[in-house]
Design a protein that fits this description.
Blueprint (H helix, E strand, L loop, with lengths): L2 E6 L4 H11 L7 E7 L4 E7 L2 H10 L6 E7 L14 E3 L2 E9 L2 H10 L10 H11 L6 H9 L4 E9 L6 E6 L4 E5 L2 E5 L11 E4 L4 E6 L2 E6 L4 E2 L4 E2 L4 H5 L6 H7 L1 H9 L3 E2 L4 E2 L8 H6 L2 E6 L1 H18 L3 E5 H4 L10 E7 L5 H12 L3 E6 L5 H5 L2 E2 L14 H21 L4 H35 L5 E6 L3 H16 L2 E6 L16 E6 L5 H13 L3 E7 L3 H6 L2 E5 L8 H19 L17
Parallel strand pairs: 18-19, 18-20, 20-21, 21-22, 23-24, 23-25, 25-26, 26-27
Antiparallel strand pairs: 1-4, 1-10, 2-3, 2-4, 5-6, 6-7, 7-8, 8-12, 9-10, 9-11, 11-15, 12-13, 13-14, 16-17
Helix pairs in contact: 4-5, 8-14, 8-15, 10-14, 10-16, 15-19, 16-19
The structure holds fructose -6-phosphate.
The site of fructose -6-phosphate has 14 residues, from helix 10.
Length: about 600
């Protein structure tokens, strides 16, 4: 996720900005840059890669001056490159930005038609041009930024400099975070608290729809509509490590709780709520491509493979196109039958997993069209693919994937909706209903996380000594059972099995006794009755049974020893909620056992080996 830092005061800005960016490194980034107001002009230095590259560039071209802004970029629009790195310049205006501007296509067309020389692929540069144009009519940078904000849809935290107002930074926020720091004779801004901790602990949190003018020792806040806002600074006494994790004990827990935001960002600009459709331009596929698809082949590894298993279900249900899922490591080198007419969907958080990359290349070489679903912009799989549909979960730091998993589920669901509409298998009113429900999912995820956290932590404590745990589910709950088991195995080192509930009687039922907790996913869906009878079978064999069921389900409450409730949603959306308590369960078992939650033994975040 991009990081922003800004400084105005009596000190040299560049070292403070660089230090602040270093303290935001944990957010992940692919390029970085600074802009400092020097003698008469604002100078910009940018570099691709780690901050030491930027430091090297600054040694060759130092930026003296006492007012400046800095940025680390996690690419969302356009590949990591120097031209796409921030700050972006338009005439006398310099901008850094964190977020996603939804109406960037329309703005780009308008600005190019107006004669603006747009040089990068980013949405941020468009903001710089808009402010520059607004300055032709508006008296000040503050007024020009205010005017520009009325033209932006989406998420942003921006910091803006103007050559003719050398002592000032104007900032604004909507949906992306921005914190202001105040100290004697100084003012700061940053995406996150850790950047500012060594300089000040007195901070003001800007709210959505607010902007501020920063000058040495003065911060003036107003709403975008122009009303003044009075807000006292809060004193923050977090340690730097606590601050990086936003007060959570581990990155994994922070990322679990970030899921509502990750899903909101992944949905941003993609839902056509009126038409009950998906904005296809994001997908990189045309209606003609949809017509050609005869089969979908999903390739992935690990957790992404579980998302792909759910993806098959979405595609078959909504688009009625045959779909198969392959473990990429088993697909490659097998001479698998694949070719023209197949849409191969390579699902990978990192976009770098070697098995998925090689499998996708083999499929492409045989004439299949490859669509990448990845979280890291410009990574290897998106680069080789014919089309890319990014998840916008932001960088995931915990090795165990959580927020990227649910973002993958969302993208695969969007793909299925898009295909279903174009294949004529999904009636518009049905798709409109699903689009509406999907738009509500971030709020329901938040409710589920808050509502189940304590209960699940108690369950984790109660069953802490279990040596084996069984997860059961049917239909879309089957891949969630697999995912629940994988999460538990990888971070707590407890043996766990995920099983299709209907398969239990074909073998695993022999494992069950009073020492084995059995977690049964039985939301109110088309398999509900059968899932509940599997739960009863496990209970009859003395297992301790935990049901993950829909709110208010009295049958599940009576049948189980413990009930974890999730809100009622359409069947295709259930995985986005039922998986949340499973992630929390794995997390708390691991935390109580004292394992290295964020860096489990023997595991790597990106697997680029055979
Ligand atoms: C488990 C996990 C891994 C990855 C797998 C594929 O929590 O994160 O199983 O899902 O290594 O990685 P990507 O999605 O980067 O291809």
């Amino acid at each position: 996720m991009c990081g922003i830092v800004g400084y105005v005061g009596p000190e040299q800005a560049a070292p403070i900005l660089l230090d602040g960016l270093r303290r935001l490194e944990y957010r992940g980034y692919d390029s970085a840059g600074l802009a400092v107001r020097g003698e008469g002009s604002i100078d910009v230095v940018r570099a691709v890669g780690k901050l030491r590259k930027l430091e090297g560039a600054l040694r060759e071209r130092p930026l003296p001056g006492r007012v400046g802004i800095g940025h680390t970029r996690w690419a969302t629009h356009g590949r990591p490159s120097e031209v796409n790195a921030h700050p972006h310049v338009a005439g006398p205006v310099v901008v850094v930005h964190n977020g996603i501007i939804e109406n960037h296509n329309e703005l780009r067309e308008r600005l190019v038609a107006a004669g603006c020389d747009v040089v990068s692929d980013t949405d941020t540069e468009l903001v710089a041009h808009l402010v520059h144009l607004a300055l032709k009519e508006e008296p000040s940078l503050e007024a020009a930024v205010r005017k520009t904000l009325s033209e932006l849809h989406g998420a942003y935290a921006i910091a803006v400099l103007r050559e003719d107002e050398p002592e000032r930074i104007v900032v604004a926020k909507s949906a992306s975070p921005l914190v202001l720091g105040v100290a004697e004779g100084e003012a700061y801004c940053a995406s996150d608290i850790p950047a500012l901790l060594p300089y000040t602990r007195d901070m003001i949190f800007l709210e959505d729809g607010e902007m501020a003018v920063l000058e040495a020792g003065e911060v003036r806040i107003s709403t975008v509509a122009g009303e003044a806002v009075e807000r006292e600074p809060e004193h923050i006494d977090w340690s730097p490590v606590m601050a990086e994790k936003a007060g959570f004990k581990h990155f994994m827990l922070k990322e679990i709780f970030e899921q509502p935001r990750a899903i909101e960002d992944t949905l941003r600009g993609r839902l056509d709520r009126e038409g009950g459709d998906i904005n296809g331009s994001e997908l990189g596929l045309s209606d003609g491509d949809a017509a050609e698809v005869q089969r979908v082949v999903l390739l992935a590894c690990g957790t992404s493979h579980h998302a792909a298993l759910a993806g098959r279900y979405f595609i078959e249900q909504l688009a009625q196109v045959p779909a198969v899922v392959e473990l990429a490591s088993e697909f490659r080198g097998r001479n698998a039958v694949v070719g023209p007419g197949d849409l191969v969907v390579a699902v990978s958080q990192s976009g770098e997993t070697l098995d998925t990359l090689v499998a996708a290349k083999e499929a492409k070489a045989r004439g299949a069209k490859v669509l990448a679903v990845a979280n890291v912009i410009g990574s290897a799989i998106p680069r080789m693919a014919d089309a890319v549909f990014y998840t916008h979960a932001g960088p995931e730091i915990g090795v165990a994937s959580t927020k990227c998993f649910t973002a993958q589920l969302v993208n695969l669901l969007l793909l299925a909706l898009w295909l279903g509409r174009r294949k004529g298998t999904l009636p518009p009113e049905e798709s409109r209903r699903l689009v509406e429900e999907l738009a509500r999912i971030p709020v329901l995820m938040k409710d589920t996380l808050q509502g189940t956290r304590q209960l699940v932590a108690n369950l984790a404590r109660r069953y802490l000594d279990a040596r084996d745990v069984l997860f059961l589910g049917r239909g879309l709950s089957f891949p969630m059972a697999l995912e629940g088991a994988l999460k538990l195995k990888e971070i707590s080192y407890v043996h766990a099995e995920g099983y299709a509930a209907g398969e239990m009687k074909h073998g695993p039922i022999a494992l069950i006794d009073s020492r084995v907790p059995v977690i049964v996913l039985c939301p109110a869906d088309s398999s509900y009755d059968r899932s509940l009878s599997n739960l009863e079978e496990a209970k009859a064999r003395d297992a301790r049974v935990i049901a993950i069921a829909t709110e208010g389900d009295e049958r599940a409450r009576t049948a189980s020893h413990d009930l974890v409730e999730v809100p009622a949603v359409d069947e295709v959306l259930t995985p986005l909620l039922t998986v949340l308590p499973l992630q929390l369960y794995a997390y708390y078992v691991a935390d109580f056992k004292g394992t290295d939650v964020d860096q489990p033994r023997n595991l790597a975040k990106t697997v680029t080996v055979e």
